[in-house]
Write a structure and sequence with these properties.
The chain is an alpha+beta fold. Helices cover 48% and strands 19% of the residues.
Amino acid sequence: MLNYLESSNELLQKRGYRLTPQRYMILQVLQEAVGHLSIDQILEGVRKSYPHMNLSTIYRTLELLREVGLVREIHLPGEGVQFEIFADHAHQHLLCHGCRALIHLDADLLGNLPKQIELQYHFYGVTLDLLVAGYCEKCWSTMNAFNTSG
């Protein structure tokens, strides 16, 4: 985790910012998370170390970290806004309509689509976020069992 925070500090410095204690704590909470976090979950995680952190500081800090490219903001239907560490340029999820499970897809799934977009359209710095909604195997089986028994 230290390498991630060190590289975050370097990126912030290149953009003219410092790695303040508030930024450090938020990045640390996001880095340690298993999955995506809501604003309230981030606040809860930060308050374990610093109980006086307020919600407006979390909002402002996340906005800066998103603009700098350290944090990704994800809008999930019915779930609201969630945040995670920005790990790569392609980001795909499967969202189950039934149980609301969110599954990360392999970054290689779409092949070199960002590079193809760059070459064909001369469009650079491409990030590709994709949300595919459907049903996981368990929810699909449950739905089909219900439909065939009725």
